[in-house]
Amino acid sequence: MPTIARFSGIAIRMYFLPKEHNPPHVHVVYNEGDFSITIKDCSIIDGEQNPPAKILNQVKQWIEDNRTLLQEMWDTQTIQPIEPK
To answer: pTM for the whole thing?
Structure first.
């Protein structure tokens, strides 16, 4: 699963396999756990349902800052790294 971003000990990953499903989402991996979160509205759809607020807030802000690019990657199935701002 390609890592598209790393920041604050968090890895954001996206991949495309036949088993991947809608809604468009990214996988978040950090020291204590992992979860999947939607690109559109930042809803947790899999994995840890109550990640630490600090982690969740950072990920939500990152998604908001990169939403257009993330949706484009999902739609075209073209992965590219996103540099932290």
So the answer is: 0.91
